[in-house]
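Newbie here. two chains, one complex. Structure please?
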Amino acid sequence: QSVLTQPPSVSGAPGQRVTISCTGSSSNIGAGYDVYWYQQLPGTAPKLLIYGNSNRPSGVPDRFSGSKSGTSASLAITGLQVEDEADYYCQSYDSSLSGYVVFGGGTKLTVL
Amino acid sequence: QLQLQESGPGLVKPSETLSLTCTVSGGSISSSSYYWGWIRQPPGKGLEWIGNIYYSGSTYYNPSLKSRVTISVDTSKTQFSLKLSSVTAADTAVYYCARLPITAAGFDYWGQGTLATVSS
């Protein structure tokens, strides 16, 4: 059972927009900790996609965006492409765990 | 370009200790700007944070694994290491090492990962 809750799967057609939610609680996202998102392509290591709730590292397309509100966060992908098919994980920190790292359970994105 | 590379035995017997090393190249492991962490992923499952270490040796462990985990750093070899004791089949996973900036606080560089299997 992950501290942060994500839907197991989402899907969309090429060109569409999809969102992936990450629900936490008052001890993590709701406590003001930032949210980070990672993309994991099949057979590879995770890659940082969004940091500080809504910032993109250099090289990440602006089709990817992040937001945070209350005890939840969301990752939006617009103009869906076949190569976006991957697992996506949110990450934050939790004060009930001494401010340590927590991950969501991951969401499998399928591009139809 | 910073690179991280995990190494260690791919097969560990139950009840023994899993030992892995992460070698950092292309950057300094002694920088005060970063933590260095271990994350694992059981086959077909999600990511689990194991712990972080600072260049000074300060450590931070996942409470669920704390009693079995030791992370250490050797700045002279630009390496940090993971030891997980009393392993069971549930510890079978791909183990990743990664860098965690103390400011941005997202793991920004990852190793390719190494599969450690616990089996007799």
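Moderator note: Chain A touches chain B through 25 residues (CB under 8 Å). The radius of gyration of chain A is 13 Å. Thread marked as resolved.
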